[in-house]
Specification:
- By secondary structure, this protein is an all-alpha fold.
- It is built from 15 helices and 3 strands.
- The termini are far apart.
Amino acid sequence: MVAIDVTSPAALPAALHTTVIGWYEANARDLPWRTPDASPWAVMVSEFMLQQTPVKRVLPAYAAWMERWPTPADLAADAPGEAVRMWGRLGYPRRALRLHGAAVAITEKHGGRVPDDHAALLALPGVGEYTAAAVASFAFRQRHVVLDTNVRRVFARAVTGVEYPAQATTAAERRTAGEYLPATPETAATWAVAVMELGALVCTARGPECGACPLFAECAWQRAGRPPYEGPARRGQTYEGTDRQVRGKLLAVLRDAHGEVPRSRLDEVWPDAVQRARALDGLVADGLVEPVAQGVYRLPH
């Protein structure tokens, strides 16, 4: 571990870079979208799938997806409903439609190649600020601030001295991340994934392994005695009994059917008729389900 002079602000970022990147090189997980031969499309697919979904659940879905659609053009040539079907039980299936929309745009506007320009990435359907920065950084080794939940938590603890970041990304967080971003693109790209990995494996939301953290001696939260979180109540992710659960059950029937499904079959998945109708209407409004006749539904074509 590199000794850091915490009284010298100018020296702090560079020393942190060396420490965190060194830890990453020794501890990084072997993931398929990080291999030297992983295409920019592979990186983009992984970023869509990893939003709000753990790596262990993404890995089999990612492998199946890339085997079927190894390029954006392959996916664009298929119906959007097939993307929803292949998405399976990853959750938040609108991501599948957005990824299909991005594939169509890449095929039609960029010759089937994921663009390396940050603005062009941001203009793709379903690609927000985080995903554009992540793809530009991880696939094209560019210098961008990449702020996901894991990164924000590391900065909150190590730099700001609080247990958790604000529920929504703040301007102050962006400034801090920008100040700590290495000057050279290659180092910045490695730093971005290294901090993310540190948050995922060590500086976790619950039960952080502070004794194993390369920033243990320099962490502001640790030096302050690990004060407990005092902000607004953090939102839980309840699932049982929610419309989201009903939507998942309805989509499961449609995914397994490989064709049109009568309303009577959908009615079997949930006893509450009002909630079931609301969930089905929501799926139709989101473009995840198509009504093809009175009381008949299918995945989008």
